[in-house]
Amino acid sequence: MLNTSSNETYEEARRQLQICNACRYCEGYCSAFPAITRLRAFADGDITQIANLCHNCRGCYYACQYTEPHEFALNLPQALAKTRTESWQAHSWPAPLGAVFQRNAVSSVFITIVAVAALMLLIRALPAASGDGFYAVLSHGAMVALFAPLFLFPLICLFVGLKRYWKDIGGERITLAHLKDAISQAATLRNLSGGHGEGCNFESQDRFSQARRHAHHAVMYGFLLCFASTSSGTLLHYGFDLPAPYGFWSLPKLLGLSGGLLMTLGCIVMLTLKAKADAALSNPETHGADQAFVGLLGFVGASGLALYGLGSTAAMPALLALHLGAVAAFFVLTPYTKMAHGFFRLAALVRDAQQRP
């Protein structure tokens, strides 16, 4: 178990959860509130679990009668956001890397992109690569040698972090039924639809909207399409001896272009909604890091689209370096950024499925 009993963030979250448990007005709003009402007391692991169930839709805050200026001064979205961030940092591995990113988000993204882009340009200065398209700039072997470690290392880090998280919240043996329930909720983002089904009021207390849910859908499915594009290209290369470049109507190209469009548009909408939302209802200490990561993810999609559009021009080598630099930054920083919340939230949904009667 993590030593959080003396942590002020957890103590404040515990105080607010006890008041919410006594009130129960928001019981039907999302998965967090049924989880709250199942408990009589809140251990640190319980608070970590509830915090990772919360989607920060803010409906509970705007419906609450105990927010300021009431003496209880409840702000549960912020309390859970702070707890959620601390739980990711506490479970992350290696922990110092997560702390570095949270303190220096924009510079971490920038330095990683520039470093990988510079490495690519250095490799390009070596004897010319053989191949067509992108492989004329960087050989297939060089790409694999560069990106395989950058892909595998974050997976190992996430695995260690999730293992720590699962132990901390008292997770049990996972069954197919639990996993199916959690994936169904994650795939539909049910908890962003609000208890009434009209959406959440993330941007404004007076307006319910599905915009945030749709933006998250665009980013999530855009990312999965891009991953499917890379996977199909790998299968064609190694399984059918059909190396890139591929034509427009090929599976890798169609999946990649549609995924890139969804990811770019989704990130733009997310950044717009964040700019409209009340920053006092989230964790102000991670606002910059969250914005930087969403911006990075959007840049990955946009630079990929630009690379496709200008792939036959003299700008291609520079665009390829920037795009692959952004992809590398995304991979390396994933365990320490908001991207990690997708994995922790899925684990939280699995645990919630185990705990429901």
From TrEMBL:
It comes from the Bacteria. InterPro entries: Citrate_utilization_prot_B (IPR012830), NarG-like_sf (IPR036197). The chain crosses the membrane at residues 105-126, 138-162, 218-240, 246-271, 292-310, 316-336. Keywords: Membrane, Transmembrane, Transmembrane helix. The keyword DNA repair does not apply. SUPFAM superfamilies: 4Fe-4S ferredoxins (SSF54862), Respiratory nitrate reductase 1 gamma chain (SSF103501). This is Tricarballylate utilization 4Fe-4S protein TcuB. It comes from Thalassococcus lentus. The lineage of its organism: Bacteria, Pseudomonadati, Pseudomonadota, Alphaproteobacteria, Rhodobacterales.
